[in-house]
Design a protein that fits this description.
The chain is mainly alpha-helical. The chain has five helices and no strands. The protein is rod-shaped and about 75 Å long.
């Protein structure tokens, strides 16, 4: 579009600017534009490495407190306490991962009823 503020155009002005009409593009014109400009898609978002995704589950204040406590108990030579504290950080991070994988939303099967009981 040559107009710098395309959102301010009326529907008729926008259609004229895009060389279209109220009924849209013809099949031939749509194929020609697809050939010239490519599909109307956003590029795929780059994925994170699985190890980085796992490490980010430890990005939590509770985990930081537990790791600091583990470091302090290790410095004091309390190895059993250190092992117990470190053993609790793994399940905490894994439970965060499980919670993120859960499909929440209107289409998910939730424990609450879809409509109020009356």
């Amino acid at each position: 579009m040559s107009h710098p503020h395309g959102h301010q155009l009326s529907a008729e002005q926008a259609a004229a600017e895009l060389e279209s009409g109220s009924s849209g593009l013809s099949d031939a014109e749509a194929r020609a534009r697809l050939q010239e400009y490519g599909p109307n898609r956003l590029p795929a978002a780059p994925g994170r490495h699985p190890l980085l995704r796992f490490a980010l589950h430890f990005h939590n204040i509770l985990i930081y407190v537990l790791l600091a406590a583990a470091a302090i108990t290790a410095a004091l030579g309390h190895w059993v306490d250190t092992a117990v504290i470190l053993a609790s950080t793994g399940p905490s991070a894994l439970s965060r991962r499980a919670r993120r994988k859960r499909p929440w939303g209107p289409s998910a099967r939730c424990w609450y009823p879809a409509r109020p009981l009356s």
